[in-house]
Specification:
Blueprint: H1 9-23, H2 34-47, H3 64-71, H4 76-88, E1 100-111, E2 124-130, E3 133-144, E4 152-157, H5 164-177, E5 181-187, H6 194-203, E6 207-210, H7 216-221, E7 228-234, E8 241-251, E9 261-269, H8 275-283, H9 287-297, H10 307-331, E10 333-334, E11 341-342, H11 349-364
Parallel strand pairs: 1-5, 5-6
Antiparallel strand pairs: 1-3, 2-3, 3-4, 6-9, 7-8, 8-9, 10-11
Helix pairs in contact: 1-2, 1-4, 1-11, 2-11, 4-10, 9-10
Length: 374
């Protein structure tokens, strides 16, 4: 049975607001408070407004100049250091520490259309053209992919010249700090390199990475009609790395007009699973794509070239998504024997956004009149 307690817009907003108040300390003089500033930021997120447009919709918001002035008091290093605390403060109470979880690491890119200069060149990444640009602010995130526990644990800005192993190492430290254990770490093809494999094996991190069909030998390994195990030696500048490969085979059965079978190869380490379980576990990694779509729904708008602003807005959007998952687990979990069941339809993400929006409108006072020219 469900508790008769009712979830309110105030509780939704409070759970999103408190991690910002507890972990981001901005000195403010005058009548403006940090709570006023962060309420405004939540309004920018759920309404998809910018610092320029938010005060045209509400009466009780700081002006654009004030918002930017106070946010500039934060530093990129401060946000990077506290990002996991911000994202996981409300979520930790719903998770069991010292438990093993399945994790995924992935990249997401935000298109950028402005100029490159000293302020942002460290964080601007070139990539395949998307939305009429090939320049991006890129972020790498650590995510729990277990069912009903899909939280974004940490998000870091991608810097030019920084190695993928540096991000992986940082995320492993975050997992240790939270007292979690790695059941398996799922990485996509971007991490398919001898350096990454050697690093993960040295750290003894169980992992799954899909095979990149590059070279005659690996293509030969991926030819067959039955699921199986194999080995492959990858050559690298710093030495060769021996890899264990599992191949899952699935028959197309006429899907998309195709017949025959398809081989799915994965480099694995630290697991002795059946190939089908490896393939099924890795498929859960695609849940991280849903988290990107959600955070784009509640990402404040900005055309600023300041990488710190953009990173902070990214953290706010992931925080809102995490807050929604926390409230689902806290209030909409059916109490019964057997596996945990969450009634997702009772509190969907759009309802959460609606609740936060209603509270923000009440606090900031929606503008209902406007001065006319004549």
């Amino acid at each position: 049975m469900f508790s008769r307690l009712q979830l309110t817009p105030y509780e939704c907003t409070k759970n999103a607001l408190q991690p910002l108040l507890d972990n981001i300390h901005i000195p403010i003089n005058g009548s403006l408070t940090r709570k006023d500033l962060f309420h405004t930021l939540l309004g920018m997120a759920v309404d998809k407004k910018s610092a320029h447009s938010i005060n045209k919709q509400y009466l009780e918001t700081p002006c654009e100049t004030s918002i930017r002035y106070h946010l500039k008091k934060m530093s990129m290093d401060q946000l990077i250091e506290s990002n996991a605390k911000i994202l996981m403060q409300t979520a930790l109470g719903t998770l069991n520490q010292n438990q093993k979880y399945d994790f995924a690491i992935d990249y997401t890119n935000d298109p950028y259309y402005g100029k490159r200069d000293k302020e942002n060149k460290k964080y601007l990444i070139r990539g395949q053209a998307k939305k009429s640009t090939n320049t991006f602010y890129s972020y790498v995130s650590l995510y729990i992919i277990n069912n009903n526990k899909r939280f974004t644990i940490s998000v870091l800005p991608v810097e030019n010249g920084k190695l993928k192993t540096d991000y992986i190492n940082c995320f492993i430290k975050r997992i240790d700090e939270l007292n979690f254990k790695v059941n398996v770490l799922c990485l996509d093809r971007e991490f398919y390199s001898s350096k990454v494999f050697a690093f993960l094996q040295e750290k003894e991190i169980p992992h799954i990475i899909p095979v990149v069909k590059r070279g005659r030998k690996i293509k030969t390994v991926l030819m067959g009609r039955k699921k199986r195990y194999d080995t492959y030696v990858m050559k690298g500048a710093e030495g060769n790395v021996k890899l264990d490969v599992v191949i899952d085979v699935k028959y197309k059965k006429g899907n998309r007009g195709e017949t025959g079978c398809e081989n799915f190869g994965f480099v694995v380490y630290g697991t002795d699973w059946d190939p089908r379980k490896v393939s099924t576990t890795y498929r859960k990694r695609f849940a991280i794509e849903a988290s990107y779509r959600m955070r784009n729904i509640v990402k404040p708008k900005t055309s600023s070239k300041n990488p710190m602003f953009r990173y902070f807005y990214t953290l706010v959007s992931f925080l809102l998504k995490n807050t929604w998952v926390t409230l689902q687990r806290r209030h909409f979990t059916r109490v019964k024997r057997g596996p945990q069941v969450i009634e997702y339809d009772m509190f969907r993400f759009d309802m959460f956004i609606h609740f936060v929006m209603e509270w923000v409108r009440k606090k900031l006072r929606v503008r209902l009149t406007i001065e006319c020219c004549s």
